[in-house]
């Protein structure tokens, strides 16, 4: 990733993933009590989306750190 355009694209991708994670966490908090099947389904879907985005972010950061740049690595489970 020597091309400045590639670095910018990677930073934007990381920012989008971080934004997605924040959105999913907020949606999970807003669902409230799981007292209906609709809320339970929403909770399951947003939990899966959160885990998927966190895993993707973790892998992207791992690739970035392997490229010679230092970055703090958190496991996907530690992100939420």
UniProtKB/TrEMBL annotation:
Domain of life, per lineage: Bacteria
Q: What is this protein called?
A: Uncharacterized protein
Q: What is the organism of origin for this protein?
A: Caldichromatium japonicum
